[in-house]
Queue: 2 jobs
Job 1
Amino acid sequence: MLEHIELFFKSIFIDNMVFAVFLGMCSYLAVSKKVATAVGLGAAVIFVLAVTVPLNWLLDKYLLQDGALVWLGEEYADYNLSFLSFILFIATIATMVQLVEIVVEKFSPSLYNSLGIFLPLIAVNCAILGGSLFMQAREIETLGLAFNYGVSSGIGWFLAILAIAAIREKIRYSNVPAPLRGLGITFIITGLMGIGFQSFGGMLTGGDEAPAEVEDKTAQAIKEEKESNKEMSEKDVSYNDLIQK
């Protein structure tokens, strides 16, 4: 359970797709002019990541890894289909994006028109493919963790685009210098937000040692401090004796 919680918060705040590795910046910049549009695209990204990362985990686990085909028989144990990762991952993503596009067009035509070309372009959004590739590179062990990673990565991207959209709506009424208006001030704000999100890294530092190890180190430190104080006291006594003599 603790592993799931740690992965969830780390993927949202510390390893944020936008602020940590700057993936999905094209959609992030183009569709963040209005909050309503940003919410729609962010929700679509969450759904696509939540579905494609676990599906690609299954493909990687039972098809693509070296020796993954052993379930078909011992004669297939030496097969390695990892060179097909990009093709199969992108095919899975494209399928899910088409499903999202059909659903959005059916139930929310206004949102579909607002997103325009950027809705089908989710299929080539580097944040979506990055989620599956990071899942593969980090060797996530279980399907549940893969689903957790997909959802949390999507939420992180959603928070990023929602925050910048809200800020961009407000800075329209601000006196921004002419050379920085538009993407200029947006990049500056994104950099500052990235610095702010990196500060969450302190949440997951420390606490890795077992309580017994911490107690042993604390006791050792106290013992060393006492010995140091004792040596200082002995030196003070000998110095006072020398002065008296």
Job 2
Amino acid sequence: MNMKKFAALALAGAMTLSLAACGASTTPAASGSTGSSAAGSSAAASGDAYANLDPVVLKGGDASGVGSAAQKFGELVADKLDSITGGKLTVEYYPNSELGGDMDLQQMMLDGQLDYVVMQTAPAVSFVPAVAVFDLPMVFAKYDGDTIDKVLNSGDFYDQLSQEYTSKNYKLMGFLQNATYRLTTSNKKLDTLDAFKGLSIRTMENSNHMAFWTALGAAPTPLAWPEVYISLQNGTIEAQENAADTCLSANFQEVQKYLNCTNHILYLNQMVMNNEKFNSLDPAYQAALTQAVSEAITELRPTLSDLDKTSKDALVKGGMELVEYPDSFYDQVLALDGVKQLYQKIDTDVNGLGTTLQNALAAAAG
């Protein structure tokens, strides 16, 4: 991997960006696991494909925690590019908020100071409003990872969403998920809809996410990530929502009693690139990028389910009680007037892309 920490520090200092964190994981980062046969054979043939091209160094980064899915995704793409192109297209990768938070990284990418960013979808909404389609609560809850992958990385929905990204100078490279979700930790058992009433819950500063919790009767409270643990500990807030690996890395089992599998938002990471930068690359390098992202997604997807399970097991071992729900619970939530109104609002905001997504999921599921 072409990691240059000294360069990261210098660049970060020059930009004077504030560091931020979205979450973290205790799982070690993937480093150097490039050994797919496809990547190996591509590297062997790279002499002909790239011999006459000038070497190119891209800069990529994420604002996720150590060992998170985002970091593994970004770094594995970097590894594979090095292998596929025989070292002609390489990456300086800056993980774990080294260059700032998600908003900082996206602005740097648009300004041409960074080439690609790996992140969850919610932070992109401020730059690409159509990405709010992923704010539809529980829209993926009843589908498996293969069905979701088919819809998100190919077909009509992918094509339409890609056009929305392109209009904002983003190049959508691909989505990484395997039907794992954001969950809710709390100090009271959320085993009925009534239990959510009045619940003070930390969530992202995202109006659609907040509207969802309000529809359940909860009191959503945006809060900076570094303040969440202490706020849960002293009772300023009662609950928070994140993926299981993030909950574990933050040691929420020390200050929360219940791990509620609300499965309200898909744990989804995306790789996006400056579209002008992508188009400026030689077609051979463009193809190498597309191949590297595809291979990384295929390789990492199975690990997401394993990470989700081991994280949940560790949280339970640490003292939390796991609360799971039947499909009828999700049906109850989706039948709430406030949630139905939110679906209509989001679909209108994204020009019907929500309907396209729901139809594509149903068709892919057969």
